[in-house]
Structure formats: C-alpha cells, structure tokens
Request: fold
Amino acid sequence: MMLIGSHLPLSGPLYFEETAKLALSFGETAMMFYTGAPQNSRRLPLDKMRIGEGDAVLEGKIALSSRVVHAPYIINLANRGDLDKLKAMEGFLRSELERAARFSAPILVLHPGSHLGLGSEAGIKNLLLSLEETLADYRGRTRIALETMAGKGGEIGRSFEEIAAIINGFSRPELLSVTLDTCHLNDAGYDVSDLPGIKSEIERTFGIRKVACIHLNDSKNPRASHKDRHENIGYGTIGFATLEKWASDPDFADVPKILETPYYKEKPPYGTEIAMLRSGVYVEGWRERL
Ligand code: FE
Ligand code: FE
Ligand code: ZN
Reply:
C-alpha cells in the first residue's frame, strides 16, 4: 500500500480525533499536522487534544511510523540577530519535539531557516550552533527532518549540499534526516522530472537513507524561480506524470508522502489527488468536480 497522505488541520472541539477521521476520509495511509498554529507559540495542553481517541480511529489504518509533525514555520535558527528571540525559539523547538513524541510521530519537519542577508555559510553555522544548544542532552525518539527549501529570501537548505553540510556539521547526525519537497526542489532549480538524476545527487551528498519524508506538491512557478507557491497535482509546472513517479518509486516505498497542495474553491483536494496518484490515472479537469 502506497504511504500517502496530506497536511491536515488539528483544531477543536475534537482535535486529534477529528484529524484522524479526516485523514481516513481522504483514504490516507500517512498524515502530517502542526501541533498548534504555525505562526505563533501559543499551545493547547496535550491532554485536551484527544490523542487517545485519535489513536483508536487510526489503529490498523495509519501506522505510527507514518505520522509526521511539522514544526512551526516561525522558528528560525539561522540568524542570531536577536538572542532573546533565538533562545525562545530553541526552547520552542525542544517543546515541539516533545509534543510530536506525544503524538507518537517519529519525525518533526523543520525548515532550516533564513540567514536574513548573512549568506548561506553563516546561516548554516548559526543553525548548527542552535542545534547543538538545543539537542545536546536530547534523549527523545522523535528526529528532526530538515526540509529542502526553494531559496526564497535568505532560506538555507536550498541544495542537497547545504542539507548535507548541516547533517555532517552536527555532532549527533543520527538525530537529523531529510524531507524532500518537490515544489521547493523545482523552485530551487532541480529538474524533479529526472528522478534517477535526483537520487544520484542525493547519494553523492547526504545519502538516500536519510530521506524520511516527501512533500509531494506541484508548483505554480517554473524551475529555479525561488518562489515556493504550491499547486494542485497536475495543474502546475511539474505535472502528474512526474509526481506519480515520485509517489510510486520503490526506493521511497517506506517514506511517507505528504500532499501540501492548496484547497480549491474552499474544498480539500486530497481525496482525489491521493486516488489519482495511487491508481496512476490522471482525471483531466478533476478540480472542477470536487
Ligand atoms: Fe514545510
Ligand atoms: Fe513542504
Ligand atoms: Zn512550501
């Protein structure tokens, strides 16, 4: 069974129980969510989030190993301009790792951050300092999966070399893995239609076994645009045939594939996108029939 799912909301009144039901309603065998609003650090206590009830819904349908939590995107550890803020963000990352573990998620997806004009090399150094500070005594089971980025603004992690520099520069590389985002790779300049070429680039840098999650998105923009705007499967510049190859690749069979495509006319596209990727058959004009 192809491990595929989507990014899902986690909101009241039923929280994780509702998230779990939504995942199953889309036919998902993998899932991703934030443990709270990605743009702030207010967090509801976990005992209010009906985790046990959600677990019961997911039992036998979505494995614990296919649960992914996304860290809030306000966390930026690549710039040390505001040390008070940085300390707060390091604490926030640590608490998000612990929250992810409470949802039994083996990985927490993290954006490597933005150097805000200092250059990638300085940004990577800063991130490494923060990871050392934050994870020195970390004993949890949830690992970080660094996401490949489009390179907009001062984003670091826009190439496999940069991701490898982060992993190899860290004293505990076993705590780090990688999330490949097809939209971000395309926008960063990679030819994602050449999957064998991508895989050999990965082998040359951090190695294919480090791939812990794939974000399967089409892109609104051409290759190397450095934009990062996701599009529905088949409606962007990457196209269905390529995304279907990524979804069904045997080397990624055990890797959860997660859609982060936009809603269309307020309707979630995931049920249809997942069905098409599973069957390998594209339905022309599917979005109008949601
Ligand atoms: Fe992301
Ligand atoms: Fe992503
Ligand atoms: Zn994105």
Notes: Residues 181, 183-184, 228, 230 surround zinc ion (ligand 3) (CB under 6 Å). The first helix runs from residue 16 to 25. The first strand starts at residue 4 and ends at 8. The chain has a mean pLDDT of 97.
